[in-house]
Recover the amino acids of this structure.
């Protein structure tokens, strides 16, 4: 039985902060097929397109028929834990600090044998369900989970190394004026975050939901204007050392394309709020996040970006907006590389039009702020890196994979 | 496959000039340095010039970025036959059988077989993390217990399946330590008792400290040539009665319970024209005791799953009922990388030429050397064995 | 008439003339005009450090700033409003420099504004002021003292569900000042020269409409008006020389004789 996590004690300010280490994160190009699946929480292995053999470890030729057609596909994750061991002495600096560490050999019902990390509630000889996770290095690893959900399952020490569970962590929601920001504050409070800092810019400007936001348990309003470098820096100086998760809820959505929009004032504003805002947050909070990647149970763990799915393919009706979102997506990829040494994940949530005033004239389906908040908690709890929220996001993603050129034309409405 | 050609004998070929460069726990020297020491010892003992060596077979994990070809220029050799055998614990047997055929066919007259590795502080970890693509993708990121963890799973599974106990493994380790006590190059020579074995600290359950080899630096070498060549050099060689080699046997076993020897053992005995009872000593590849037990089974010294009983019934010291790893094996001698795959073979040449550096097995006439290696993913892939006989 | 500039300078040096700074400091968080979000917005003041004796510039400190023309203490030129768009010399770069120095009449309605944030300056109020302080002279700035600059940002902006609630002039009062008194311009402590609810006036935003329509100027976000006499101060208010600029942040100084 997984022991429920207990609230971490207040940190002794005189104690050295443990420097973050990461497990070996190098993988072959082919093995990154697992990375793609793990990033989105799917369980996929190579399945030979010619003989249907399920293959592991990832290969470039089928060991049954030598076919080179070995796509990653969803397979049955169930199997038996054939043998386990508890590693007590490790050569690897990351694991040395985390021993004893259980691993085991799992024989999947669909064929292959996989060496996997073990959730505490698995037993040798018992049934297990394998999952793919990204470890602290951002590389894909397998973990054998109990065949059926058990209480406090997410709180297993080994699993928690691969997730960003918000429980007992301190989160910063960068903009509490937005509906998404307010839904996010509620969701993090409910998920057990110990402090929910919520940034409010221009406190002199009233906003709807103000009172309800302040009434949420463990919410602490902080002045934060992500278009103002000084404001971002000031908050980081005060609280950067005790923020474990950042969720950037700052949004700026205006209709209009590139040709059909007069001037750059709106575009600059878009870029200032979204792209430069992200950069200000990254510069002010990134170094502390990376430094605190192994700082106990409530270590720094994630930076969450909320992105329009049209970052992936421009939607001309919101053409300049899409371009800004694309800039943020690109920045998030650089941030991933920069924060990875601290074991800090950059989580990207993609969604289509939201149920907010800026998409008032756009027909459904639309994503509610609550759905985005729920997906964020889910992504962190499961340790995902890329999440598509809602039907439009899924649709765009599928169309993009199938035929990017077709999607380009379709989004233009022709 | 019908109509397979009957294998030809190794008549007329011998392995001689056993060389061991004393091991060190850590070395600041490169693998090249260790290779150079071994080659120099080969020429010193034979009176040859380095350029007389017209064949070279090299095994090393730490010689990178070089391979055997770079070593020819580095060492001033000009061989007409060159081989690189990166098969870890199977390197000795594989190098021997290839070199023997080259000499037999006249492709080379004097093949220097060398295995050498250095061990810098931290080089073991680096070797592990980049050992193979599967190790990189699917083993090292899992707790990084290295081969200890891989063998822990194999050992645990074997114990559960066949009822072997830690005491059985301990008996082998204790006997090997007894053998090592007279071997001058063994790194671990203090007495080991079964109690001490049982009480040792756990490394990766059920593997404990004395189940594990100690990585170190060192080199082993021997020479393969025709019998008449050996005679003219004034050295005594051992004859090669038979050899086998097999890779990636039994991929269908979920966890390794047997090695490739089981596929080829009949051929091994048939070709040699002897049986298990004719063997005076056995040198197994012993990076973990469980794999020695599998070798006893798969080579036919006992039935499958009976090694625990077998171990309980025999004594394994040089003067015991089943002399085994007579120089102490890697468990007491240390594991000098690929040289670990040569250790049993070099010791067998000494035993059969009655020139043991430590305890001599009395009446040693026929010996079996077995190799095993390359935990590429979850199991050892390479297996091999050779039956050798002393001078006629 | 001969002018003794040396005496003028000496008077400043001696303190016989005091200089009152009527300018708010440019900071990122100072409230600015808020329009409906779908409209173009005035940029707040922002400062980005270029270097500070570091690898970006080892021996020097400097910043880049960005700001809207109507952010902080700022000047409104006639071209700012549609009613003044075709006037000659209507932009900050073409206004004759002479216009940047003018006397001021300071209308104190701080008590009335304290009682009612929607206080509206009427002709009657002005006439009453004249009865005490004399006629508002032609060519004068008319500065509306409300003590608004002393408020918290939230009260200063005065935003509620139905928009801003801040004091300002009635249409008739502006018209009267321009037509009957030929004033130089109109200045306030609040974010705009018009009242917070002036979009409901007729015409909407009368201070902008009438003042700029007649080529007069505006000053906003002033402070320290309480340090000025009702009459007699001279205002120095020279906006940045922005080509075709509609206004600009500026330093506004008042010269007051002791």
């Amino acid at each position: 039985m997984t022991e429920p996590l207990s609230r971490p004690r207040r940190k002794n300010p005189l104690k050295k902060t443990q420097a973050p280490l990461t497990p070996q994160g190098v993988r072959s190009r082919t093995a990154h097929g697992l990375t793609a699946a793990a990033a989105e929480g799917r369980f996929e292995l190579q399945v030979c397109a010619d003989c249907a053999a399920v293959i592991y470890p990832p290969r470039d030729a089928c060991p049954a028929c030598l076919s080179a057609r070995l796509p990653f596909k969803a397979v049955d994750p169930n199997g038996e834990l054939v043998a386990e061991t508890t590693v007590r002495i490790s050569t690897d600096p990351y694991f040395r600090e985390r021993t004893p560490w259980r691993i085991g050999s799992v024989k999947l019902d669909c064929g292959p044998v996989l060496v996997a990390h073990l959730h505490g509630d698995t037993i040798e000889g018992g049934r297990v369900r394998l999952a793919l996770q990204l470890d602290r290095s951002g590389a894909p690893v397998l973990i054998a989970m109990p065949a059926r959900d058990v209480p406090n399952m997410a709180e297993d020490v080994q699993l928690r190394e691969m997730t960003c569970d918000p429980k007992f962590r301190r989160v910063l929601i960068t903009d509490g004026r937005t509906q998404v920001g307010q839904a996010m504050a509620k969701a993090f409070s409910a998920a057990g975050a110990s402090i929910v800092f919520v940034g409010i810019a221009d406190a002199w400007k009233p906003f709807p939901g103000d009172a309800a936001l302040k009434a949420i348990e463990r919410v602490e309003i902080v002045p934060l204007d992500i278009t103002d470098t000084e404001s971002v820096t000031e908050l980081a100086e005060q609280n950067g050392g005790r923020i474990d998760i950042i969720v950037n809820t700052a949004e700026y959505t205006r209709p209009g394309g590139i040709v059909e929009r007069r001037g750059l004032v709106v575009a600059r504003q878009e870029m200032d709020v979204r792209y430069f805002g992200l950069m200000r947050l990254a510069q002010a909070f990134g170094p502390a996040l990376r430094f605190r990647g192994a700082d106990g149970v409530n270590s720094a763990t994630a930076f969450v970006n909320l992105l329009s799915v049209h970052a992936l393919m421009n939607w001309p009706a919101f053409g300049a907006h899409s371009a800004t979102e694309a800039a943020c997506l690109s920045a998030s990829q650089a941030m991933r590389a920069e924060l990875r040494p601290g074991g800090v994940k950059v989580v990207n949530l993609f969604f289509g039009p939201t149920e907010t005033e800026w998409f008032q004239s756009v027909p459904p389906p639309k994503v509610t702020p609550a759905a985005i908040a729920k997906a964020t908690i889910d992504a962190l709890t499961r340790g995902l890196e890329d999440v598509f929220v809602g039907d439009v996001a899924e649709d765009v993603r599928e169309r993009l994979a199938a035929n990017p050129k077709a999607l380009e034309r379709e989004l233009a409405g022709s | 496959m019908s109509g397979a050609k009957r294998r030809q004998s190794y008549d007329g070929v011998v392995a001689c000039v056993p060389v061991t460069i004393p091991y060190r726990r850590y070395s600041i020297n490169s693998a090249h340095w260790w290779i150079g020491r071994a080659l120099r010892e080969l020429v010193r003992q034979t009176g040859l010039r380095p350029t007389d060596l017209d064949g070279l077979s090299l095994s090393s994990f730490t010689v990178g970025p070089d391979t055997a070809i770079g070593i020819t220029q580095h060492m001033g050799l000009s061989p007409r036959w060159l081989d690189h055998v990166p098969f870890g614990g199977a390197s000795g047997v594989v190098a021997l059988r290839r070199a023997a055929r080259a000499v037999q066919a006249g492709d080379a007259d004097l093949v220097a077989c060398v295995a050498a590795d250095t061990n810098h502080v931290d080089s073991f970890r680096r070797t592990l993390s980049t050992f193979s693509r599967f190790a990189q993708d699917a083993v090292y990121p899992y707790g990084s217990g290295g081969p200890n963890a891989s063998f822990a799973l194999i050992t645990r599974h074997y114990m559960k399946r066949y009822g072997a106990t830690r005491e059985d493994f301990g008996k082998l380790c204790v006997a090997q330590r007894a053998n090592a006590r007279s071997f001058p190059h063994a790194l671990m020579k203090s007495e080991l008792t079964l109690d001490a074995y049982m009480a040792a600290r756990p490394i990766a359950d059920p593997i404990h400290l004395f189940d594990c080899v100690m990585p170190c630096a060192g080199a082993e070498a021997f020479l393969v040539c025709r019998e008449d060549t050996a005679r003219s050099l004034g050295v005594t060689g051992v004859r090669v009665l038979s050899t086998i080699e097999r890779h990636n046997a039994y991929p269908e076993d979920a966890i390794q319970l047997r090695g490739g020897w089981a596929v080829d053992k009949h051929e091994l005995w048939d070709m040699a024209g002897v049986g298990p009872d004719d063997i005076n000593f056995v040198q197994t590849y012993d990076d973990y005791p469980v794999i020695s037990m599998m070798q006893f089974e798969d080579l036919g010294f006992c039935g499958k799953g009976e090694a625990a009983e077998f171990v309980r019934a025999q004594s394994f010291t040089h003067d015991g009922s089943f002399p085994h790893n007579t120089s102490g094996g890697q468990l007491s001698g240390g594991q000098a990388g690929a040289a670990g795959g040569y250790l049993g073979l070099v010791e067998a040449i000494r035993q059969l030429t009655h020139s043991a550096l430590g305890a001599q097995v009395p009446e040693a006439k026929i010996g079996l050397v077995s190799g095993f290696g390359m935990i590429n993913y979850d199991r050892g892939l390479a297996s091999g064995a050779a039956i050798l006989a002393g001078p006629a | 008439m001969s002018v003794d500039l040396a005496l003028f300078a000496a008077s400043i040096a001696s303190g016989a003339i005091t200089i009152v700074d009527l300018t708010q400091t440019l900071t990122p968080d100072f409230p600015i005009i808020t329009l409906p979000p779908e409209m173009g917005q005035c940029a707040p003041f922002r400062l980005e450090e270029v270097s500070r004796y570091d690898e970006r510039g080892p021996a020097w400190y400097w910043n880049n700033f960005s700001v809207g023309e109507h952010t902080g203490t700022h000047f409104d030129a006639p071209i700012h409003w549609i009613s003044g768009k075709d006037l000659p010399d209507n932009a900050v770069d073409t206004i004759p420099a002479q216009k940047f120095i003018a006397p001021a009449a300071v209308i104190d309605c701080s008590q009335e504004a304290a009682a009612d944030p929607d206080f509206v300056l009427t002709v009657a109020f002005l006439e009453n002021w004249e009865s005490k302080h004399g006629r508002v002279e032609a060519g004068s700035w008319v500065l509306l003292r409300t003590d608004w600059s002393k408020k918290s940002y939230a009260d200063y902006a005065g935003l509620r569900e139905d928009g801003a609630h801040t004091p300002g002039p009635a249409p008739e009062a502006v018209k009267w000042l321009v037509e009957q008194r030929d004033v130089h311009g109109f200045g306030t402590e609040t974010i705009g020269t018009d009242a917070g609810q002036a979009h409901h006036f007729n015409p909407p935003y009368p201070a902008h409409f009438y003042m700029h329509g007649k080529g007069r100027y505006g000053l906003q976000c002033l402070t320290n008006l309480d340090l000025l006499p009702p009459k007699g101060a001279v205002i120095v208010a020279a906006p940045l020389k922005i080509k075709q600029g509609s206004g600009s942040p500026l330093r506004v100084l008042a010269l007051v004789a002791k």
